[in-house]
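fwd from M.: "can u put these together and see what the complex looks like"

so here's what she sent:
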Amino acid sequence: MKRPSDYEIELEETDREISRLEERTDTTPLDAATATRYAYRLYHRASLTENYCEFEAVETAIDDAIRRISLWPDLCLLKAHLDFKLHRLAKARQDLEMVRGPADFPQGRALKADLDLQEGRYEDARRGYESVIKENPTWDNLARLAYFKAKMGDVEGAEQLYVEAQEEITAKQMRSYAWVEMQRGLLDLAHGRFDDAGAHYERAGAAYSGYWLIDQHIARLLGTQGRYARAVALYEEIVARVPRPDLHQALGDLYVSMGEPDKARSWHEKALAAYLESAESGDVRYLHHLTDFYSDVREDGAEAVKWARKDLDLRPNYSTQAALAWALYRAGQLAKALDLMHMALSSGVRDARLFVIAAEIHQASGRTEEGRQYLREAAEINPYYQDVHVHL
Amino acid sequence: MADHNDPNAVNSIFSDIDVSAADVYDMFGFPSDNTAGGEKVVIALTFASIPETGVFDTDMLYRIQITAHPRAAYPSGDDHSLEALLRYFDAVKDKYLVELQAAEIRVTVDQDGGARVAFKDFPGGSFSTVVDTNEVLIIDTPDGHSIKAFLGGRDDAFFNDLPGFFRSINYAPQFYHVPHTMIEARELPIPKTLLELEGNDLFNFDPNNPKHGQGVKKDLPPGPWMWDGDRYLKDENGNFRFVYSGKDAQAGRNMNALIFEIPLSFITESPAEDRVVSTWGESWVLKAANKVETIPDRLFWLEHPWALLDAVTLDEEMKKYKLVDTVGQPFADAGLSEREDNRQLGANNFWLAPHFIKRLAHLGWGFGPSISALGLHTSFDHDNSPVSVHKKYATPIEAFPRAKKTLFQKLNMPDDTWNTSGLDIHLKRPFEIFVPNVCAIDMDTTGTWPFGRRLEDQVATRFLSMFLDMGAEFNGKQYNIETLNDQSLWDQAPIVPKTPPNPLKNDKEFLDNFPYLAEPW
């Protein structure tokens, strides 16, 4: 019999715990510790599977518990994390302030810094991360600052912080260790160090087996390296396990790269249908995917601009600014695209993909020399920038 | 962006490990009665029986540090000043950090239950061996000594009324579901006390919910969690209500333990001079990065079950682990360090010395008036306060005058049986006991606390006796560390229940022979 993977074991243990707690949540009065633990376990499971329906169940459980108990601080913190996860930033901020406690708790302070970063207050985010690390140099806070530094071009500083983060992780947290390995792989990928990225992903898999997220990263790397057959096989295996629309799109994109648009079509259609259905139901998680899809797959500027504006309203940061700039470029609105691009660049972020977009918009606007300069900067960061497609 | 940088997707927002194998419980140490072939010292480190009794967590490394040295000269004579106290802490720090190089025993257990025991930096050198768990073993050392060892499950040897202690310090997590996010809601700002406070509804015994705090928890009500009363609670007969019940909260529970009986001449080359063996225990957990690479290590140990090792190899090993918990003195953690993770320093707790003074004064304002209310004499200067007071100090300078006597008074022993040698061994004073946080075993005594720690010592109650005025008398006998264990005292006191604070003996009889700790349940 096949030995279950670490991921399967964790999922099974989580299910057992959920079942055990579920019985206790039926009792009256419901105690806050049980309610929190139950909702947290549901959240934990949803985070493992990334299944949107499960996140909805978490929300129901939290709201139900708050209704039955009160605004229990831990539940508010969990609610804030959930809203952040689903890109509902304003709500996340409100959740943190609903009662005394969560906003001053280290995890709440780290989340506030995450919100600052998502909302484009980069200095506030940096200060927030540094302050929380001063008191709580836990692996997750170190990884947060590492990500910030990586985006701002301090690759060495980021790498050092990821190493420090891993030093804090014990054998009881192998999934966390694997996650940081993946971040290190992503950092290498963003700088064109494909073999190093592969080594990190392999190590992540050795630390925590059977995790679809690791496989997803490996598949993307294989595609970037032009190892299409293996990439396709792995993607197909992943989407069979985790039917997420962004994975469907990734597989479609891969077929396009292979020069097989017919095979790509069904995956793209499937992805788009799910994105639209999600957006129509009020979910904002896939807005940036819709923007990218219309910009790059359909090359439909008007539609891309529509979704990009919605996303920018929610998350005014360099990523959504650049995405709208790119959408405007597709729509032929070059002046507006240029303005947005300058806003994105003023963030200080140094990212090859950002510079490639900047180069194209500048060149299309007749600012050829600036365009060339951005291409040079992109190449400095990643000599293989043309091969890498990463969401900003 | 959130998709790519969301550590909380993989991290626990709230701790989801209730009990960890890294939770070390107690450090016992006393001279063995078995002196055939030379003096021996018994050392036992106990910890949570996770994953189960007698089964060890294979990600853990347990370390017992041991150093032997001459008995310290009586410190500072009659100079009972704060400066003298801080000078003493400095001198002890230099002694522990510079002069004394501790030897150590490390234990790890593999998936098949084989334990690797490594002895490092003993006078005879360093070596390791692989042994079975849950058996009494003899480990022969390269320099010809025999060490008795037992690594496995036992009955929990700690016997005390832990809920009573937590009630005395208004420790909310014992009684309430406290949100993780409310860091301030641990020890609530209510006077610490030995007697229930009138109107302290959060912590007073509730006859309608008698198990509250003993397994039953309620949701923490919204604050403020203050107490604005001005007296102790009394019943219709004029009796105070004791916060303690005298019941053993650890009854029927097991733990895992590392127990050794070690020849003194293995620990020191000068057993005639080095009469004090100081020891402390630590738990370390394997770092994730090293778990990915454990297979080659394990093969080495399997192929070399008995190996002479050099110190470098062993120190490289420690880099693979992360320190989690330490234990030396009972109540150094729960009573004085407020159980904070960043205060898990083991012997190296010198920087806590100023905190120790402040904390002792904080506790004194709670326990001192309680003792006075019972008609007993206290070592703490509380200005004859009729009731416990919640008071915190910002600096040791402010706290010291109040706690001076508590810190400096000699802790009387109940009789002379502790001093088996008849030597002129000075009585211990509290400041000597808790800094550094080690179990200091005097080989010329029975090793009863505070000259070590014997299994049968009721240390929780002895800890409270620090707040008694050792110059006073009860029933014609000077107060001593066993006074509060004397049933006749409670029979006479205006209090219910009429019981010593903690049980007088363990729930299971200890053994006369090695491994001394009782069989598991």
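replying to her w this: Chain A has a mean pLDDT of 95.
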